[in-house]
Structures are given as C-alpha cells and as structure tokens.
Amino acid sequence: MTAPTSSGFMKEHATFNHVWAALMLEEHYRLGVRDVVLAPGSRSSPLTMAASEHPGLHCHCHFDERGLGFMALGIARGNQRPVVIITTSGTAVANLYPAVVEAKLLGVPLIVLSADRPIELLDNGSNQAIDQRDIFSRHTIAYHDLPPPEAEIKAAFLLNTLDQAIDQQHRSPGPIHINCRYREPLYPGRCLVDASGYLAPLGNWLTASTPWSEWQASTAVPAPQQRVGSACPAARPDCCWQG
Predict the structure, then answer these.
(1) Three-state DSSP class for 194?
(2) What is the pLDDT of residue 90?
C-alpha cells in the first residue's frame, strides 16, 4: 500500500520495511529488470507488495520455490534480461539452490531477494528460522546481507549496495543474492508512513528514470551465455515456463 504523488517515487508507504522494498524494486527496474517471480510468504510481504504495485514490473507467481527458481531461469534466458526472485525466509530459500547453481554454470543473471528474520530471532527456536547468510556459497557472483530497514541508515547506502552488486553481475554474468532482514510490522496498518524527509537526500533520483549511480546508467545488460556441455534448461519443463 503506497500513496501516489503527482510524479516520481512514492513518498508514503505501508511501513518502513515497505519503503526499503520499494526502493529496491525501483532501482532494479532502472537497472533493467522487467520480470519478478515470487512465491507466497509472510516475511517477504514488503517485497511482494512493492513488486506487485510497481507499474513497470510483470509478476509471476508459483506455489513451489524449486519450480520458482527454474521459472526465473527460463524467463531470464528467454527475455535476455535479469529476473528478480522473491522468497520468504527459511527453507524456501534453500529450495532455490538447484536453479541458482545452474544459473551460475550458464551465466544467467538471476537476482535473489530473500526475506529473512532479524538476527535476534535466530537460534532461539523460532519456526522456519535458519541461517541464510551466504547460503548459496560460491554459486553466486555477489552476496549482501542487508540490515533491517532503519531511518538511521541512508537510502543512498541501499541503492549503492544494489548498484555495486549489479555491476559485478554485468562484469561476470550469473546469480546474485541479497538477503533482506525485516522486523515487524510486515503488513499495512491504519496509517501510512511518510518517508518524505528520509527520501529527500536522494534529490533528482526521486523523479528521474536512471539508476542512483551515474556509472550504472550507461552499463548494458549482458545476454546470458550458452555453455557447451552445460545442462540445458529446455530439457526441463519446469525451467522454461513463462507466465
């Protein structure tokens, strides 16, 4: 739930988690993403809502995260563009492992945005709470474990982090993993959060259509590579499904 302004990036959002989620999806859009694949989940609600409300993104849903990963792989190869994958926390992330490994072998630009619990909710018996830090190990081009959204952390930090990860992906095509920690609340309340003051330092970015980092604006999105001898996604029905 966001409140539109006359032009540019939304200034009011359901929660502060949604502010960060909207910033992330907008920056990915400016960096070339047009398709987002997602599976149902609670912890990932801010990301899911931000993706579904973005007018330039096409969302694809799947009930199973393993199939979701191969769906993203097929869309990325077919459209020659990076694809964002959104999952909730816990074993949902682990189910992406086969698709992430194959994306690394084939040089396919997947962007995994995994929702996660804050660090204080780990190792205390909470349901579906696993250590997701760098879960894909050497099978990703870049990995970042984001802190929970806080007003004290500048929006420019978030955008810079994304731009640097995508720049690495441009130089060496393959999957990247951004782990997104969210504290409660995850769902909209009665009032929207006015983020005008928090977003103000972004200046022209709020009404522009280019990425935050100037050097990213001129970077082309690479085409996925085809490697001889690699497993072919076309041989897998769940790999090439396109919604």
Answers:
(1) strand
(2) 93
In this structure, what DSSP letter does residue 239 have?
T
The domains located in the chain, with CATH, are 11-187 (3.40.50.970)
- CB contact at 8 A, 239 and 68: no
How distant is the alpha carbon of residue 94 from its chain centre? Answer: 16
* pLDDT, tens digit, 9 for 90 and up, residues 57-76: 999 999 999 999 999 999 99
Strand order of the sheet with strand 35-38? 58-61, 35-38, 83-87, 110-116, 176-181, 142-146
- For residues 86 and 39, give the distance between their C-alpha atoms in angstroms, rounded to a whole number: 7
- For residue 90, how many C-alpha atoms fall within 13 Å in the half-sphere facing its CB? 13
Of 23-32, 116-125, 174-183, 205-214, the least confident: 116-125
Q: Is the pTM of this model over 0.70?
A: yes
Give the DSSP letter string of 21-39.
HHHHHHHHHHTT--EEEE-
